[in-house]
Amino acid sequence: MIKKLSKYLKGLGWLCVASAAGMIIEAMCELALPSIANSVYEMVKSSTGDPTQLKYKIAKIGLLMLIMAVIGLAGGLMTMKTSSVVSQKFSYRLRKAMYDKISSFSFKNIDTFSTSSLTTRLTNDVTMLQNTVMMGLRILVRAPALLIVSAVFAFSINAKLSMILLVLFPIMIIIIAVILKFGFPMFQKMQKKIDNINRVVQENLIGIRVVKAYVREDKEKDKFHNASDELAKQGSKASGLIITVMPVMMLLMNFVIIYIYYKGSVDASKELMNVGQISVLANYIIQVLMNIMMVSMLMLQIARAKACGDRVVEVLNTDVDIVNPKNAFKPTDPKGEIEFKNVSFGYNDGIDILSDISFKAKLGSIVGIIGSTGCGKSSLINLIPRLYDVTGGEILIDGVNVKNYDLEALRELTGVVLQKNVLFTGTIKENIKWGKKDATDEEVIAACKAAQAHDFIMSQPNGYDTVLAQGGLNLSGGQKQRLCIARAIIKQPKILILDDSTSAVDTATEAKIRECFYNELKDTTVLIIAQRISSVAEADEIIVLDDGKIDSIGTHDELMQTSEIYQEINKTQQKGVTE
């Protein structure tokens, strides 16, 4: 994990060195002050000369101490500045690398992680690593340096009294080791609880209309409170373990200080030490103990950071299963002819939901796909732009296996309108231009007219410059569908896939949209997945799916004669219309 993450500090070495240098300067100045202060005490104690001369000497030493304090402050400020810059750049690089990696994920990869978990890893986990880097740069050099030098000074003053450190140090190490052993699993569980609370919040906010429609606010509040309670309980366990360190360390430190002052006073009464030495020795012993505490707190921070780091590296190390092949094919003059050859497909459970799918969609044809809910219609069309990969057989576009295509080129020649209409925060025009970023206003308007969206857009407060709320919540379902269709049409794709994309549109408007496909997209191969037979009745060819297999293929008239499933669907829908 450390090796994986350390590369995001590349090029920041000089800043790390500057941070360490600042800490060393501050530590040296801090350590020197007690000894200088003791020299003043010794000077006053042994002084027999001119008081004015003594005051002058004390003033000089006081000025020296002030200068050293300012130098120490400058070193500390340099460390604060450089450590902040390093940690911020580290987190920026790491978060960007994670986002780039997630952007390259296939649908299968995304299914492995929940959205809430990826959100936590991109935010909370990276922030924890950022804070650990910053804390490490500020403490990792300073604390050990102060600890070692203070211990050396303490032993130089009174080795016998300082021997207590040799007893105390192993005890503290054992305490820290025990806490780390039990703390790490707790931090792992804590991060998963954060994932859970993010999931609950995300689901509630996305589905807020459904929640209110079914008057389930109280239920969702209870769900959130339960998730919060679980996080609080796990956080309390982890925090309880951490805060145990401070009282135990303080107890040991106070015990040592009492011991030093007691034994020091005994030695002073025997004239083995003087009062100034006792004070300086106590100061250095406190420095040793305080820095042991600082190191222990850093180790606890590192324990939590390791839990976060493992989760971050898990994302970075994920093998993307759909990548560009070597010598990827980039078509110079794509046509848009599609052929499925004995295609089978299944998700992670290994069970095929599509099997032995074979058909051919000719250039410029309109192919309808119809079948019962759950028969695999959406899964089938997701295979064409390689949102998922087939588990058997092959899909050819213009005679070339889609697995041999350059991914960007493949998806560039394909326009997709999925079941879930996704619009982004921004203006209507900006959303339409997702299909073609350099589209002119005339092209935007033409695409919207073809999708029967122009009229309702012009009725909006600012027309095409109307700002959409997140997810297009200020539009109806049918309006969102038409904008998504316009976004696909403006792309002028060679293959247009419509996955039940007119389910929220009235039949008259749907008929006008279909007319556009026939008149304006003559060179585009169109695949229409639909629940209603009226949506595909005029298609050049209709594929009837049943339980992941092709039941029959033909025109509307042919299927009305040969396909029992198609006849049953038609009969059911006609009955519904009649009633």
Structure at a glance:
The chain is α/β, with parallel strands linked by helices and 579 residues long. Helix content is 64%, strand content 11%.
CATH superfamily of the domain at 2-316: ABC transporter type 1, transmembrane domain
Our Rg estimate from Cα atoms comes to 36 Å
Unreliable stretches (pLDDT < 50, length at least 5) are: none
Proportion in β-strands: 5-15%
Helicity, as a percent range: 55-70%
**Level-1 CATH class name of the domain at 2-316:** Mainly Alpha
The largest sheet, given as strand count, sense and whether it forms a barrel, is: 6 strands, mixed
Mean pLDDT: 83
CATH topology of the domain at 2-316: ABC transporter transmembrane region fold
The total of beta strands comes to: 12
Question: Rough shape?
Answer: elongated
Mind telling me which CATH architecture of the domain at 2-316 this is? Up-down Bundle
Distance between the termini: 65 Å
Widest sheet: strand ordering: 6-9-10-3-11-12
Number of helices: 20
Based on secondary structure, the structural category is alpha/beta
How does this structure look, described?
With 579 residues, the chain is an alpha/beta fold. Among the domains are: 2-316, ABC transporter type 1, transmembrane domain (ABC transporter transmembrane region fold); 420-492, Rossmann fold. 64% of the residues lie in helices and 11% in strands. The strands form three sheets. A six-stranded mixed sheet has the order 6-9-10-3-11-12. It has a four-stranded antiparallel sheet with strand order 2-1-4-5, with no helix packed on it. The chain has a two-stranded antiparallel ribbon with strand order 7-8. Strand 11 (541-546) and strand 12 form a beta hairpin. Helix 2 (13-46) runs parallel beside helix 6 (142-157) and helix 3 (51-103) runs antiparallel to helix 5. The longest helix has 53 residues, at 51-103. The two termini are 65 Å apart.
